[in-house]
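[Discussion] Sanity-checking designs against the backbone

I'm trying to build intuition for which residues belong where. Below is a C-alpha cell string of 329 positions. I'd appreciate it if someone posts a full sequence so I can compare it with mine line by line.
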C-alpha cells in the first residue's frame, strides 16, 4: 500500500512538474511581445517617404504598447533578404515584417526559387496603400484617358512607358493597361524613378505610371498631364485628377500597399495586441494627414484584410504573369 501511495505521489509530482515546465515555456512568447523591443523590419533602403511614415507609425505603436518599437532597414534582393529573415525569426511578436505588394505578392508570382512562402507569415494588419498614375508628357495632344486611347490608336504605333524593371508593378501595370484599352505598349526599364521621369519630361516616353508624390510638382508646373490615379477614390491633394473608374477604366484599379506581418506560429493574442496598436496609429489624425499629404491612403482593420489584398493581387497580377510568361531568378 505504501509503495502504491509512493508511486501515485511520484506520478502526480512528475505531472505537476511537467505542466509547470510547459507553462513556463509558453510564457516568453507572450511576455516577450509585452516587454522586449519590437523590431519592424523594412525590406528596402531607408530615406523614402513611406519609410518615414512607417517610422511615425512605429512611434505611435510604441506609445500604445508601452514599449520600444523601432524600424530597421534591411535592403537586399528585392526585399527577399529581409522577408526571409523574418520568416525564420522568433514567433513572439518581437520581429515584425513590413510586408509589401512587391515582397509578398509579386515575388511569389515571379520567382520560382523564392526562399519563403506567403504561408510562412501571419498578417497583423494593413498600413497604407497608394495609387499609380496614368501620366503623359505635356505635349501629348489629349486631356483625358479616353482621348489618350483614341490618340494612340490613331497613331497606330506602340506607346513607350517607363518601368522600374521587369516584374515591377509599373511594368505589369503597363501590360494591364494595354490589355484593357487595346493599345500596344512597350516597357522601357530604368534603374530608378527619377531617370524615367526625366525621359517622360523629355518626350522619350509617352506614358509614365509613377506615384503621385513623385510627379505632383511636375504637374503643378505644367510639365506633365496626370490623367488618372489608380485607386478607387481621389487623392485629397489631387482633387481635380479623376480615378481610373471615373475615367471609364475601372479594370485598371490597383495599388501598391504595405502591411505588418509576423512569422507563422506567433500566438493569436500577440497578433491581436499588435493589430490594435497598428490601427490606433493609422487612425490617428497625424498619420492620416501625413499620408494624405503624400498621396497615400491610411488603412486600418482586422488582420484578414491583408489576406484579402494578397488574394486580389494574385488574381490580377497572376493572370498577367502567366499570360506573358514572366519569371525572375
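Best answer:
Here's mine. Compare freely.
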Amino acid at each position: 500500500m505504501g509503495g502504491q501511495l509512493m508511486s501515485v505521489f511520484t506520478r502526480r509530482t512528475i505531472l505537476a512538474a511537467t505542466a509547470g515546465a510547459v507553462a513556463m515555456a509558453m510564457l516568453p512568447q507572450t511576455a516577450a511581445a509585452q516587454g522586449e523591443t519590437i523590431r519592424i523590419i523594412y525590406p528596402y533602403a531607408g530615406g523614402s517617404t513611406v519609410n518615414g511614415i512607417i517610422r511615425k507609425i512605429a512611434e505611435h505603436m510604441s506609445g500604445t504598447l508601452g514599449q520600444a518599437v523601432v524600424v530597421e532597414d534591411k535592403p537586399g534582393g528585392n526585399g527577399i533578404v529581409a522577408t526571409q529573415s523574418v520568416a525564420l525569426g522568433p514567433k513572439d511578436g518581437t520581429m515584425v515584417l513590413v510586408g509589401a505588394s512587391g515582397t509578398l505578392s509579386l515575388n511569389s508570382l515571379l520567382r520560382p526559387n523564392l526562399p519563403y512562402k506567403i504561408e510562412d507569415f501571419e498578417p497583423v494588419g494593413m498600413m497604407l496603400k497608394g495609387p499609380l498614375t496614368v501620366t503623359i508628357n505635356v505635349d501629348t495632344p489629349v486631356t483625358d484617358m479616353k482621348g489618350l486611347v483614341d490618340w494612340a490608336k490613331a497613331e497606330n504605333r506602340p506607346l513607350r512607358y517607363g518601368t522600374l524593371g521587369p516584374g515591377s508593378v509599373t511594368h505589369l501595370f503597363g501590360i494591364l493597361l494595354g490589355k484593357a484599352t487595346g493599345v500596344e505598349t512597350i516597357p522601357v526599364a530604368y534603374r530608378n524613378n527619377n531617370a524615367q521621369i526625366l525621359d517622360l519630361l523629355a518626350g522619350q516616353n509617352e506614358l509614365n505610371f509613377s506615384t503621385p508624390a513623385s510627379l505632383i510638382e511636375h504637374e503643378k508646373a505644367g510639365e506633365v498631364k496626370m490623367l488618372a490615379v489608380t485607386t478607387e477614390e481621389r487623392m485629397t491633394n489631387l482633387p481635380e485628377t479623376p480615378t481610373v473608374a471615373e475615367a471609364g477604366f475601372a479594370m485598371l484599379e490597383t495599388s501598391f500597399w504595405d502591411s505588418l506581418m509576423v512569422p507563422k506560429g506567433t500566438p493569436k493574442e500577440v497578433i491581436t495586441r499588435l493589430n490594435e496598436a497598428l490601427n490606433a496609429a493609422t487612425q490617428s489624425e497625424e498619420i492620416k494627414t501625413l499620408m494624405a499629404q503624400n498621396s497615400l491612403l491610411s488603412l486600418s482593420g482586422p488582420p484578414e484584410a491583408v489576406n484579402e489584398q494578397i488574394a486580389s493581387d494574385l488574381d490580377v497580377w497572376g493572370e498577367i504573369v502567366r499570360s506573358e510568361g514572366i519569371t525572375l531568378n
